[in-house]
Amino acid sequence: MDFAYTIAGFAVGAIVGLTGVGGGSLMTPLLVLMFGIHPSVAVGTDLLYAAITKAGGTLAHGLKGTVDWKITRLLATGSLPAAAATLLLIGHFAPGGIEGAAHLIQVSLGVALVLTAVALIFRKRIQAFALARSGGRVPDPARTARLTVLSGAVLGVLVSISSVGAGALGVTALFFLYPAMPALRIVGSDIAHAVPLTAVAGIGHWFLGSVDWFLLGSLLVGSLPGIWLGSHISTKVPDRILRPILATMLVLVGAKLMAH
Questions:
Q1: How far apart are CA 48 and CA 35, in angstroms?
Q2: How far is CA 192 from the centre of its chain?
Q3: DSSP character for 137?
Q4: What's the number of CA atoms in the CB half-sphere (13 Å) around residue 51?
Q5: Do residues 171 and 126 lie in contact, with contact meaning Cβ atoms separated by under 8 Å?
Q6: Dmax of the chain from CA atoms?
Q7: Which residues contact 21 (CB under 8 A, 6 or more apart)?
Q8: How far apart are CA 120 and CA 165, in angstroms?
Q9: What is the pLDDT of residue 229?
C-alpha cells in the first residue's frame, strides 16, 4: 500500500507543479475517497505534506524576490491564531475529539473544493473586476491591511479543518485586495504564507492524534520528483485547457464529499 501512496504522491506532485494549485485540493480527497483514509487523518497528514513541499516553493520565490513579506506577515497575523483556535475548539467540543469531527471536516473539504474550482475558473475575471473597481485609485493602506488580516483568519479556519484554501482561495483574496500587484508576486506571497499556516495546522492535528507519519513519508517520496517533473513540463501544456479540466474535477469531488 505504501507504493500506491507513493504513486499518488507523484501524480499529485506533478499536477501541483503543472498548475500551481495546492496539493490539499487534490491529495486530501484522494486519500479519503480512493484509499479510505479517515478524513481527519487525511487532513492532518496532508497539512504537514503541504508545509514541506511548499517550503521549497517559498525558497525559490524568495530568492527571485517575488515574495511581499509584509503581506505574508499580515495574512499570518490572522491565519495562525485562527487555525490554532479552530483546532482547540474541534478538540474540545467535537464529540470524541477530532474523530468526532470527521463529518464536519468532510463537508468543509467539499465546500472548499467547490470554492477553489470557482477561484480557478474566474481568477482572471476576478482580477479584472478588482482592477476596474479600484479605478486606478490608491486604496487606503490601513483598511487593506485590516482586510488582509481578516482574509488570513478565514483561510486559517478553512485550512485547519479541510487542508484546502491556502492556494487558489488565498491568491483570489489577494487579487481583490492588491489588484495592481503583479500576479507572480501575489502567488509568491501566498505560497510563503501557506508554509507557516499548514505547519501550525499540521502540528495541531499531530497533537490531536490525526497524523500518519508512515503515510506522510510515502507521499513525500513520490511527490518531490512529481513536482520537479510538473514544473519542467508546465510550459508545454496550455493553461486554458488544464485549468477548466482541473476545476471540473474539483467540483465533482467536492460534491461527492458533501453528499457522502
A1: 18
A2: 12
A3: P
A4: 19
A5: no
A6: 56
A7: 15, 116, 120, 167, 168, 246
A8: 12
A9: 84
pLDDT in tens, 19-60: 666 677 788 888 988 899 988 899 999 999 988 888 877 887
DSSP codes joined into one string, 116-133: HHHHHHTHHHHHHHHHHH
> In the predicted model, what is the mean pLDDT of the chain?
84
What is the distance between the alpha carbons of residues 6 and 218, in angstroms, rounded to a whole number?
A: 5
What's the grid cell of residue 187? 502567488
Please report, as a single letter, which amino acid is at residue 9: G
Q: Tens digit of pLDDT for each residue in 130-161?
A: 778 776 666 788 999 999 999 999 999 988 88
Alpha helix (H) residue ranges in the chain: 2-19, 24-33, 39-64, 69-93, 102-121, 123-134, 141-162, 168-177, 183-207, 213-233, 239-259
The amino acid that residue 216 corresponds to is: L
Is 156:80 a contact under the CB 8 Å cutoff? yes
Cell of 120: 480557478
Q: How far apart are the first and last CA of the chain?
A: 24
**Any idea which residue has 483546532 for its cell?**
87
* Cell 489577494 belongs to residue: 174
- pLDDT score recorded for residue 136: 63
